[in-house]
Amino acid sequence: MLAVLTFRVGSPCLLFLVVADADVQVIFSGFLVATVAAVVVTGTVYLLLARLLWRRTWTHSVMGGMGVTYVNSNNLGLPIAIYVLGDPAWAAPILLLQLLALQPVWLAALDASGGDRISLARLLRSPFTNPLTIGSLLGLAVALTGITLPSVVLDPVELIAGLAIPCMLIAFGISLRLSPLPGRGGTATELLVAAGLKLVLMPAVAVLVAGPVLGLDPHAVLAAGVMAALPTAQNVFVLAVAYGRGEQLARDVVFTTTLLAMPAMLVLVAVMT
Prior knowledge:
Elements: H1 2-20, H2 30-53, H3 58-67, H4 77-83, H5 91-111, E1 113-114, E2 117-118, H6 120-125, H7 131-145, H8 151-161, H9 164-178, H10 188-213, H11 218-228, H12 235-243, H13 247-272
Antiparallel strand pairs: 1-2
C-alpha cells in the first residue's frame, strides 16, 4: 500500500517539483554521453542474459534492466558529488536524464507489455497514463516556460511530495523484514550478476567512453565513473511493487548495491587518482 501510494501520489508530485526547478540545459554535455553509453551497454547485457539465459518474462527483464541502470542520483548522488567530486552539479545531468528520458522509456516498456507481449497502442498511450511520466512532463513544461507557480498551487504539491521518500523507505524496510533474505528464493545468481553489472560494468563503460573515446578531462572522467557507480535507486523497488513484477529482485538489488557501492567507489577513486 505504501509503495502504491508513493507511485501514484507522492513521487509524481516530487518529480514535478524537481524537474520544474531544474536547469534542463545541463543535460547537454559530453559527460552525459558517457552516462548514456554506460546505461545502454549495461541494460542491454542484462536484458540479453535475462531473456536468453534465465528465460525471464519481458516485464521481469525490464524491471531488472532498470535495476542495473537507474542510480540513486538524488539522495546519494548529491552528497557524493559534493564530498567526493567537490561540486553538486555533477549529479544534475544524470538526475535529469533519468527523470526525462530513462524512466519514461523503462515505464513505457513496462506499460506496453501485456504478459510477455508488447502492444504498440499501450506503448503510445504510456506517457499520458503513467503518474511518474506525467509528473516529469508537467515539471518540464514549467521549467521550459519559466512559469512561476503561485503558492496556492505550489504549497499543496510540496506537502504531498513530502510523503514520497519516507513512505518509500518504510515500504522498503517492511519488505526487508517480511520477505526472504537477499539472495534467497532462487535469485542468488541473478542478484550477483545484476550487482556486478551495476557496480563494475556500468562505471567501467562510463570511464572508457568519457576518457579514451571522448577525451574529457581527468576530473570529468572520474565524475562519470563515480556517478555510474551509485547504487540502484529505491524508486525501482516501488515500481516493482506497483507493477507486481520482480519485487524480490528489485529489493535485493537496491539493498546489495547500496551496501557495496561505497567500497566500489573507493576502489574506483584509488585506481584513477
